[in-house]
């Protein structure tokens, strides 16, 4: 069974038939000389690569409909390609240039003659290799969802002197951006002999409003030692027609887009427009979010560095707090919708008394509230440290302050400063109690974003960049790269952007944090059950950054 299009699922089946006038069809629909209906008004094309591996003798195609109930625009050719096999096996495949451009010529991969790869036992990834999304299964569990394994293929669809690549960085800063840029340039140059690589300045708007930079291995040689991005960045500025016009006018045929959730959605729209125009251009996303909130992948680059750097701020807050009578250190960390940085920094540090994240509602007054816990902790220890993610407590702030629904250029709601608000509320509470406190508030957010990547993130960035290059050269397009269960994988754009990854507060990792800080859960039994029932199926446990949770939210 093959699924086309993105969005929520409603099933419509079409049985196999042999049709004439073949024009567009997703890869993998040709099996044993039989072609399946592909739902594009009778226009079909024989699949040149035959990836459909299901042994089922009766296949069907399922169309996904938009949330509004309307069938997706079939002129967009394809959005999701889902291949189903025996034992509950599901492959969420990615588009290939041959899906919509017929008669493309393939070439032998030049890596087989690369001296650096002469010691490798197996040069190329087998086309049947896939990576399971879930690593924890039960005896009778279905095999589940898989993604195509990343890596070099035996055949490529670009010759070295044909490639004209570009790289763009969008959104906020994150440790490792320069490393990804460097390794894309070096990977294209050293592994595939590519000489024409452009850097697009200033984010998406740079395609039509800024200059470009010619990138060479020499130019990017030491940029991984610096924070930020040498290409500059911005939020917003996405004008699809202008961007694709610029790509077409410049003769660019590989586009590498580094950015977060909104950026990847924009990359998908660019990919769609390129398909409509019938251009031979590979569009590849490298997911970037310091918050580690991108679905499917184990972790995003820059996260390890952020957790490490956060220790400095927490240590400083602890020193300040324990040096004064009733000292309180408040540290605000990144985490707009997901509290991974705050949670991991708290667990790593062990000096934190309370960690507040967006996923875990809390309250200030009354029995079991934050203030009651603070009074108890100050009485016991004489000091305390609170770590709060930037997205925590927004509902409480809105109850006490007039707030608007203003958004930034990327469409993200502008958050109120929970650190300042919480600090003020703490001061007001203890003033009423006529209890002297010494509160220090530390916000290291932009300091953490601006540092270079640490060793672990530098290695990870290298793997992401090289996987992206291998995928583009092999003719894949419309995908993002990421680590799934410890393996580099190719993930369809829609899967990486359809939901956000969040901390599961009914999971054992959050329980470990509670046992470390001894803070109240702020969650009664009724709320816990409600939260558990609404937890998305593909949420991840923090037990292991590479393991999804079972459907009930626990491992």
Write the layout of secondary structure elements.
Blueprint: E1 2-4, E2 30-31, E3 34-35, E4 61-63, E5 81-84, E6 89-93, E7 107-108, E8 130-132, E9 144-149, E10 155-156, E11 165-169, H1 177-192, E12 197-200, H2 206-209, E13 212-214, H3 240-250, E14 254-259, H4 261-276, E15 282-287, H5 303-322, E16 327-333, H6 340-349, E17 354-356, H7 370-381, E18 383-389, H8 394-400, H9 418-432, E19 438-442, H10 445-449, H11 455-473, E20 479-484, E21 487-492, H12 493-497, H13 508-517, H14 525-534
Parallel strand pairs: 1-4, 6-9, 11-12, 11-14, 14-15, 15-20, 16-18, 16-19, 17-18
Antiparallel strand pairs: 1-5, 2-3, 5-6, 7-10, 8-9, 9-21, 12-13, 20-21
Keywords:
14 helices; single chain; disordered N terminus; four-stranded parallel β-sheet; about 550 residues; alpha/beta; 13-stranded mixed β-sheet
Radius of gyration: 25 Å
Helix and strand content put the structural class at alpha/beta
**How much is the average pLDDT?**
81
How would you describe the shape? Answer: elongated
Helix coverage percent: 25-40%
Instruction: Give the low-confidence spans.
Output: 1-78, 532-555
Characterize the largest beta sheet: strand count, sense, and whether it forms a barrel: 13 strands, mixed
| Strand content bin | 15-25%
How far apart are the first and last residues' alpha carbons, in Å? 30 Å
SS element count, helices: 14
> In total, how many beta strands?
21
């Amino acid at each position: 069974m093959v699924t086309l299009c993105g969005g929520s699922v409603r099933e419509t089946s079409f049985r196999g038939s042999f049709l004439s006038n073949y024009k567009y069809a997703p890869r993998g629909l040709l099996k044993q000389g039989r072609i399946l209906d592909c739902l594009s008004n009778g226009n079909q094309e024989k699949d040149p690569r035959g990836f459909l591996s299901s042994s089922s003798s009766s296949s069907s195609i399922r169309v996904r409909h938009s949330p509004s109930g309307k069938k997706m625009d079939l002129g967009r050719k394809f959005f999701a390609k889902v291949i189903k096999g025996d034992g509950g096996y599901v492959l969420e495949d990615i588009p290939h240039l041959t899906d919509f451009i017929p008669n493309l010529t393939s070439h032998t991969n030049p890596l087989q003659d690369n001296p650096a790869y002469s010691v490798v036992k197996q040069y190329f990834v087998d086309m049947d290799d896939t990576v399971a999304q879930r690593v924890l299964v039960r005896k009778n569990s279905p095999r589940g969802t898989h993604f195509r394994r990343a890596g070099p293929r035996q055949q490529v669809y670009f010759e070295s002197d044909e490639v004209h690549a570009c790289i763009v960085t969008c959104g906020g800063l994150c440790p490792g951006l320069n490393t990804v840029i460097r390794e894309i340039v070096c990977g294209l140059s050293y592994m595939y002999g590519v000489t024409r690589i452009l850097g697009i300045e200033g984010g998406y708007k740079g395609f039509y409003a800024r200059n470009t930079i010619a990138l060479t291995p020499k130019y990017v040689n030491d940029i991984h030692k610096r924070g930020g991005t040498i290409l500059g960045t911005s939020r917003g500025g996405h004008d699809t027609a202008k961007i694709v016009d610029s790509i077409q006018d410049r003769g660019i045929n590989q586009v590498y887009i580094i950015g977060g959730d909104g950026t990847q959605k924009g990359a998908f729209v660019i990919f769609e427009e390129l398909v409509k125009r019938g251009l031979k251009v590979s569009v590849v996303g490298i997911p970037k979010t310091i918050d580690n909130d991108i679905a499917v992948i184990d972790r995003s680059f820059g996260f390890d560095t952020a957790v490490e750097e956060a220790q400095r701020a927490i240590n400083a807050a602890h020193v300040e707090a324990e040096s004064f009578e009733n000292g309180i250190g408040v540290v605000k960390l990144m985490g707009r919708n997901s509290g991974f940085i705050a949670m991991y920094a708290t667990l790593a540090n062990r000096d934190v008394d309370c960690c507040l994240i967006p996923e875990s509602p809390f309250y200030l007054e009354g029995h079991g509230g934050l203030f009651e816990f603070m009074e108890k902790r100050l009485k016991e220890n004489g000091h305390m440290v609170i770590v709060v993610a930037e997205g925590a407590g927004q509902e409480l702030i809105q109850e006490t302050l007039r707030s608007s629904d203003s958004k930034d250029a990327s469409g993200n709601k502008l958050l109120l400063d929970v650190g300042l608000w919480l600090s003020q509320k703490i001061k007001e509470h203890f003033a009423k109690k006529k209890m002297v406190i010494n509160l220090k508030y530390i916000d290291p957010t932009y300091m953490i974003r601006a540092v270079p990547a640490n060793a672990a993130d530098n290695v990870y960035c290298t793997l992401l960049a090289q996987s992206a290059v291998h995928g583009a050269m092999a003719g894949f397009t419309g995908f993002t790269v990421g680590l799934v269960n410890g393996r580099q994988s190719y993930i369809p754009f829609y899967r990486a952007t359809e939901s956000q990854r969040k901390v599961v507060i009914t999971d054992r990792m959050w329980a470990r944090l509670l046992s470390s800080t001894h803070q109240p859960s702020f969650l009664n039994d009724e709320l816990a059950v409600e939260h558990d029932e609404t937890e998305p199926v593909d949420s991840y446990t923090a037990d292991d950054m590479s393991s999804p949770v079972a459907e009930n939210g626990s491992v």
